[in-house]
Amino acid sequence: MDIRDVKTQELVKKYNFKFTKSLGQNFLVDDSVLEDIVNGAEVTEEDVVIEIGPGVGTLTAQLLKKAKKVIAIELDDELVPILQNELGENPNFQLIHKDALKVDFNELIGDEKSVKLVANLPYYVTTPIIVRLLNEGYNFKSLTVMIQKEVAERINSEPNCKEYGSISVLVQYYCDTNIIRYVSPNCFIPRPKVESVVIRLDRLEKPRVELRSEKLFFDVVRSSFNMRRKTLWNAVKSIGLPKENMERAFESSGIDQKRRGETLSIEEFAALSDAIYDEKDKVK
Ligand code: SAM
Q1: Which of 44, 56, 53 is nearest to 23 (CA)?
Q2: Distance of alpha carbon 120 from alpha carbon 55, whole angstroms
Q3: Residue 27 near ligand 1, beta carbon < 6 Å
Q4: How many C-beta neighbours within 10 Å does residue 118 have?
């Protein structure tokens, strides 16, 4: 089936659509960005694409040209009839009228082998959506998302950079990260206040490091970045291990307790949290 291109401004006018700021509605109007998102996501006819927040369907139409199927999840009541009207005839298009934070993605993924998430995300929920998609272990091959530049730079950051933080460790624990391009506010209507970035997160077959306890690993990471200016020793005090056990944990992991959390690689966080886990076992 031939798929018509969807032109954002034309549809906004045709349906007299009123933007809702609180839903993060900044629609793409630049064809080169659409092309770069679809190419950057490496969508093929083997792929089922899940799109969060299709808006009036501008990106959706381009995805439908390449993918086996596109499942779009949209929260706004006003957009549902527009999307049905413009794209509903396409047999490979499925629309889900729901909050993406409440969708059971396992139900959508089913037995599909190659599922990719592609989205120009509503910025007010960027981090909760990404964290949920990664933490809940859904079987996505990749997530290609447009997000605020600052968040993308944090996700893509390395130890010893000022952007490096819990979100960098969380995302890189599960994924390889690739910045595809920077996007100016002029590429959207209405114009957002911030610059954006398209980033692709390729899910690793298994997490980057093997851990004794994922929960303890993320507790150590969070404590370390909550107190960025403090030494690791002071930051991980909240874990509540007796002093001598904590000293042994630092010693056996080979991590200097005077270092700051922001200098540790994921492998070093893993070594420290595993050593703390072993010491915790001893004081049980
Ligand atoms: N994909 C379109 C584009 O690129 O032009 C629109 C992107 S716009 C940044 C974000 C879209 O997400 C809007 O259509 C908005 O209504 C929708 N949205 C906001 N919150 C949502 C949520 N919690 N679940 C699903 N969709 C949501």
Answers
A1: 53
A2: 9
A3: yes
A4: 28
Out of 20, 52, 103, mutate this one to test ligand 1's pocket (max ligand atoms within 8 Å of CB): namely 52
Q: Bridge partners of 27?
A: 189
Which tens digits make up the pLDDT trace of 215-231? 999 999 999 999 888 99
Contact 17, 175 (CB under 8 A): no
Burial letters 196-220, b for 16+ CB under 10 A, else e: bbbbbbbbeeebbbebeeeebbbbb
- Calpha distance 26→134 (Å, rounded): 25
Where do the domains of the chain lie? 8-203, 214-283
Would you say domain 8-203 falls under CATH 3.40.50.150?
Answer: yes
What are the tens digits of pLDDT across the range 39-95? 999 999 999 999 999 999 999 999 999 999 999 999 999 999 999 999 999 999 999
Q: Are 8-203 and 214-283 equal in CATH topology? A: no
192 Cβ closer than 6 Å to some ligand 1 atom: no
- In angstroms, the CA 80 to CA 97 distance is 7
* Pair 17, 177: CB distance under 8 Å: no
Cα–ligand 1 centroid distance for 245 (angstroms): 49
Are 149 and 196 in contact, with CB atoms under 8 Å apart?
Answer: yes
Would you say domain 214-283 falls under CATH 1.10.8.100? yes
